[in-house]
Design a protein that fits this description.
Elements: H1 9-20, H2 25-34, H3 45-57, E1 61-67, E2 75-80, H4 82-97, H5 105-111, H6 118-147, H7 156-177
Antiparallel strand pairs: 1-2
Helix pairs in contact: 1-4, 6-7
Length: about 190
């Protein structure tokens, strides 16, 4: 996949899984769910099959074998090519090395917050803070459980998710205890 095609993290996940060994798409989806990758990578079967097909056309993966299904359709097992392995490493290096502008939904909401009445905006932020506090507790508990079983290198995504949630919660609490000034918007 040329550099311009590096926009779909699902394709990177497929390459990473196939770098571990051959698999069919259903198996890939199963492993992604077991590893909770769906929290950071949008996963659905239709797009997974499309991504595998696109990677095949780009010469990154190839069909290794068809496994006959007893009572279900045959499954095609895919393997990664040398070009796919090289692309996966380059793409992953770029993601880790380079800070990219992202467009989170919440940030868009904050940019437009002043278009709501102050009391409504405060209520919505309080609701978000309450939900976020529950998430932080859940993520913290889950991470502690995982730390007893898994090496830290595979937990970095979960640690990062928890750190972001804790930072957002602290920021929200600060905003809610401060004095928000509202601009005069023309109606």
């Amino acid at each position: 996949m040329p550099r311009r095609g590096r926009s779909n993290p699902l394709a990177l996940a497929v390459l990473a899984l196939l770098a571990e060994g051959p698999a069919h798409p259903y198996e890939m989806a199963s492993v992604m769910r077991q590893r909770h990758w769906q929290r950071s990578i949008r996963l659905n079967f239709g797009s997974l099959y499309s991504v595998v097909e696109a990677l095949g056309h780009a010469g990154m993966v190839f069909p290794l074998e068809r496994v006959p299904g007893a009572g279900r359709p045959d499954r095609t097992v895919y393997a990664i090519t040398a070009a796919g392995r090289s692309e996966m490493r380059a793409w992953l290096a770029e993601l880790l090395r380079t800070r990219h502008q992202e467009y989170p939904q919440f940030q868009a909401g904050l940019a437009l917050l002043a278009h709501l009445p102050p009391a409504e905006a405060r209520t919505l932020l309080e609701q978000r803070a309450a939900t976020l506090a529950q998430e932080v507790d859940g993520l913290g508990s889950q991470l502690e459980t995982l730390r007893r079983r898994l090496p830290r290198a595979v937990l970095l995504e979960s640690e990062y998710e928890l750190a972001l949630a804790e930072a957002e919660l602290a920021w929200l609490r600060d905003v809610l205890t401060g004095d928000l000034q509202w601009p005069e918007l023309e109606g």
